[in-house]
Fold:
Amino acid sequence: MSDPLHFLEVPRQDPPKLEAEIRIRRWDEIYGQFDIESAESQSGRCISCGNPYCEWKCPV
Structure:
């Protein structure tokens, strides 16, 4: 196989994150939500992945 990571055509993208200055004053979620397009592309990236060890967090 020439490219064992061929399933990673879409780069990993994290949701928006609150700035540290805001996080130290509030107990809100620090991560925002994906828009629909980003959620679809990231979930497709996940489903196409060949790494079964992602129970806690995506390693790739």
The radius of gyration is 15 Å. Residues 36 and 52 are 25 Å apart (CA to CA).
